[in-house]
Design a protein that fits this description.
The chain is about 35% helix and about 30% strand. By secondary structure, it is an alpha/beta fold. It has two domains: about 140 residues, P-loop containing nucleotide triphosphate hydrolases (Rossmann fold, 3-Layer(aba) Sandwich), CATH 3.40.50; about 70 residues, no CATH class. α3 runs parallel beside α6 and α5 packs across α6. It is globular and about 55 Å long.
Length: about 260
Amino acid sequence: MLKLHQLDFGYNNHPILHNISLEIKAGQIVALLGANGVGKSTLLRMMNGTLKPGSGWVELNGQNLQHLSTRQMARQIALVEQVSKLAWPYTVTQILKLGRFPHRGWFAPYNPQDVAIVEQVLQQTDLWELRQRPLNKLSAGERQRVLVARALVQQPKILLLDEPSSNLDIHHQLKLLNFVRSLAAEQNLAVVIAIHDLALAARYCPRLVVLHQGRIHADGPTEAVLNPTLLKEVFGVQAQLYRDPFHQQWALSVV
C-alpha cells in the first residue's frame, strides 16, 4: 500500500534521514523505534505527505503522494501526531466530526452514516461520557484519545501514530493498542506506530523498524530485531526478549 523510495531529509542543511526505503502492506502493524531525535516523527510526516522529502518519493497504491490532493490522501492515510499545546474549545463530538471531512467536505451537512460512525468510535475509544466536554477542558491523555478517535473516524486504510501511548495511563495504553490491533486484523488496516516503549512495541507490533544514525538499522520480526546486541548498540541497555508466561506474548527484561 505504502512504499518509501530512498528518502533523504534534513533541516537547514542538517541531515536527519538517509536512504530510507520501506514497504508497508495492508494489515501490518509496524513499530518505528529509535533514540530521541532520530527522525521517527519526521518519517511519519513524510509518509502522509505533510513533509516533502529532500530526495526520493513516497507511493500510495502506486501513486506519488505529491500528485494527490489533500482530500485524496486523507481518505487513505490518517496521522495522529503527539499532543502538546493543542487545546481547541470544541466538544469531543465536534472534534470527531472533523474526521469526516475527507468524505463530505467542510460545508456539507452530516448524514446519518457520519453520525453513526462518530458515535461508534466514541464508544469504542471510551469517550462516550466525555462527548460533550470541550477539548481544552480535558487532560493530556484524554486529548490524545480524542485525536486517535478523530483519525479512526476518517476510516483510513493506513493509520500513522506518533507516540500514541505517551500520555495515557496503563489501562488506556493497553486498551488503545488492543483496539488498534483488532482494527488491523478486522479491517486490513495498515498501522505504523512511532513508539519509545520497547515492551509495548514487542507486545503489539509483529514487525519492527529501527532507525539509528539516520538510517534503517534493522527491519524484521520482533524476535529477530530486539536481540541483545541491537538493544545495547542502539538503546544502550542490556535486555533480553522473552515470552511472558500469562499470554505468551513478547516481553522485555532489562538488566
